[in-house]
Amino acid sequence: MMFALILVFSIGCKKDEPQANIQRKEIVGDITSIEDEKLYVHESIVLNALMEEDQKKIKELNLTSEDMPSGIYHEQTGEKYEFTIGEKTTFILIDTRDNFDHNPENKEYKTHSIEDLRKHLLNPKTGEIATYPFLFIIDESTNEIIEAREIFVN
Question: Long-range CB contacts (< 8 A, 24+ apart) of 16-24?
Fold first, then answer.
């Protein structure tokens, strides 16, 4: 009887976790274009000289202070991806141009709007999309972006 109660309880708990089935994948990359509900991304690498976890990769790539004058290394590496933008996709932008009503402490602006993303990425001088690195969290089963968080590179 005790086994049956534990089994029913554990089945009931799993039923309330809809996100548990999502196969998440993380990719760092630059947005190269936005077309309709599609986001095109070129995979990139971002390393910070001050971060201990980046030191091994910095040594592996033989990077010097000349390669990283600001302490940051950012380069497009290889793979190109096409992801779907869903209604619940969250974009977390660093609003350094004060285009939006953002968090005053860290300039973070969260949105689900593709138009806000376009506005943020548009270079006002050239009219083209500026390439900033983002950390993308992708649902591998649907190829849909769950979250795109901009990585600050100065």
Answer: 22/139, 22/141, 22/146, 23/139, 23/140, 23/141, 24/137, 24/138, 24/139, 24/140, 24/146
pTM of the model: 0.75
Alpha carbon distance 85, 63 (integer Å)? 35
User: What 3-state class would DSSP assign to 18?
Assistant: helix
- Residues 79-131: pLDDT tens digits? 899 999 999 999 999 888 888 887 777 888 999 999 999 998 988 888 888 87
Q: Which ranges constitute the DSSP H helices of the chain? A: 2-15, 55-60, 114-121
Q: Which of 149, 154, 136, 150 is nearest to 24 (CA)?
A: 136
Tally of helices (H runs) and strands (E runs) in the chain: 3, 6
Q: How many CB atoms lie within 10 A of CB 139?
A: 19
β-pair partners for 148: 91, 136
